Structures are given as C-alpha cells and as structure tokens.
Amino acid sequence: MRRLLLYILLLTCTLSSYAQEKKVLKLDETARIEYVDRLTDEQLDTIDVKKKLSINDYTLIGLQYGAGLSMFMFNPPQENDRVILPYNAGITFTKYGKMFGYMPYFGFQIGLFYAQDAYQFTYNEEYDYTFKIENSEKAVIDVIEVPMMFQFHYDMWNFKIMAQLGCFGGYRLGIQRYPGVTGGESMYQNSFAPYETRIDYGLKGGVGFGLVFDPIEIHLQATYKHSLSSIYEPDYNSEYYYRFAYPASIVVSAGVHFQLTKRSGKTKADMKKEARKLIYENEEDHEFNGGKGR
C-alpha cells in the first residue's frame, strides 16, 4: 500500500512538472513572436537570412533617347539608302506583373515619342537617273508616336534581359524635302502634298538589356519599327496602278528608368516571417541536441 502511494505521488509530480514546462514553453513562444514583431530594420539586417531574388509587381517611368537608320519600302521597288537620324526621344511608363498569376516575366509599356522617318533615293548608273518625289531625292519626316508594347523580362540581381513586341500609332507632323544635285524645288518643299497621308501606325519590337541599381535602371535597346501606313495614297498617280511607300527604321537607344515601386527583395513583413522561422528552427535544433547546439 505504501509503495502504491509512492508511485501515485511520483506520477503526480511528473505530470505537474510537464504541465509547468508546457506553460513556460508556450509563454516563451509568445515572447519570441512579440520579440520578432518588434525587430527594427537594423536588427533584421543582423539575422542571416538566405537571399533570394523575388520580383515584385512594380512600375517604372523612364526617359529614352536614341538614334536610328531609316528607309522606305516602295512598291513598285525604288532603291533608297538608309538615312541616319539622330533624333528619337520619348518618355515611357512600364508596368510589370505576373503572367497567369505566378510567372514574374511579363510587362506592359506605353510611351510618347518624337521620331523621324526618311528616304534618300540612290543614283541609277545604268539609266543615269535618280528617282524623285515632288522633285526631291530625299525627305525627312517628323513624327509623334505612341507605342504600346508587351514586354518579357528575365531579372538577375543587377542585370535584366528584355524582349518586347507591340504596335504604335502616330501622326506625321512635318516634312523637309531636299532636291539633290540636279536642283529644282517642289511647291511642297516644307509641307505635305494633298495626296500624302499624315496618320501613321504599324508594328514595333526589339530586344535589350538593363543594368539595375535600385531604384534606377539603365536600359539599352535595339528596336525595329515598320509602318503599315503608306506615305502617300495608293492611287495618287493612277487609279489602276497603285503605289505604296512604307517607312521602316532601326533605332538603338538608351534610357534611364526610375522605379516607382519596390522592384525586388523582401518587405519588412517577409523578413520578420523568415526571422521568426529561423528562430524556431534554431530552437528545435537546440532541443533535438539536448540543449547542446548542433
């Protein structure tokens, strides 16, 4: 009987000690959670959390400037050289988001650009002749355009690769004609002829890369633009034989873009979550090794 009482007393003491230990452990967990939530950014920086590039849905506003090579595609064909054009500048707004909700490689960009298109006919030695439009061998056209592009990007820590494709709409502001060596001027030297069209639209696409120094990004791009709007009305010369002239150009540009929202990395809430997880893991390892650490 005495031995039974002793066993009951020992069991009671063991259960009481276990309950007290669970209560202390629960209080310790609450205290750890409250401690992590009170951590400042400076304290979080001292915790060794494994870095991982996590691209956020973020936005950019940028200034872009470039130079290009332009020519026209004529039908019937007319040989013309590419003309170097030093003016292609604009402002862009880029919004990045996750494709299908989980692929952080997608973006949409819209911009406003001042650009130029040009043609310069080449001398035909066989016929000793240079084709002309309005008595001019060369013309430079000023254009205002609004590109709308879908962009795919792959980001690394300080580097990104981009590819984009889309369309543009524009308006031809003015034209400057050059008569060439044979002389003679057109009555439309600095203005559009009645049969020339002012509305411009077409396709645009390109590739490039970016150097990222949060919150600034420097983008270098090569872009091809092909207009689907002929410079003159197809039947201006004949109602039976249509003529077309479509501008096309390659532009190499550089731009400075400013991040309006956070590009990558973890927010303070994310860092607290990882810090809390790290503290729990260390505590579990400590208990597993009998309080002696790893």
Give a concise summary.
The protein is of the alpha+beta class and 294 residues long. 21% of the residues lie in helices and 48% in strands. A hairpin with a 3-residue loop joins strand 3 (83-99) and strand 4.
What is the strand and helix layout of this fold?
Blueprint: H1 2-37, H2 41-45, E1 59-75, E2 80-81, E3 83-99, E4 103-121, E5 123-124, E6 129-130, E7 138-155, E8 159-178, E9 199-213, E10 216-227, E11 244-259, H3 268-288
Antiparallel strand pairs: 1-3, 1-11, 2-4, 3-4, 4-7, 5-6, 7-8, 8-9, 9-10, 10-11
Helix pairs in contact: 1-3
In the CATH hierarchy, the architecture of the largest domain is: Beta Barrel
What's the tally of helices? 3
CATH class (first level) name of the largest domain: Mainly Beta
Q: What is the third-level CATH name, the topology of the largest domain?
A: Porin
Strand order of the largest sheet: 1-3-4-7-8-9-10-11
How much helical structure, as a percent, in the residues? 10-25%
Which structural class is indicated by helix and strand composition? alpha+beta
Weakly predicted, low-confidence segments: 21-31
Radius of gyration: 34 Å
Principal-axes shape call: elongated
- Run of helices and strands: HHEEEEEEEEEEEH
Number of strands: 11
What does the main sheet amount to? 8 strands, antiparallel, barrel
What oligomeric assembly is this protein in?
Answer: single chain
Distance between the termini: 47 Å
Mean pLDDT: 81
Counted up, domains total 2
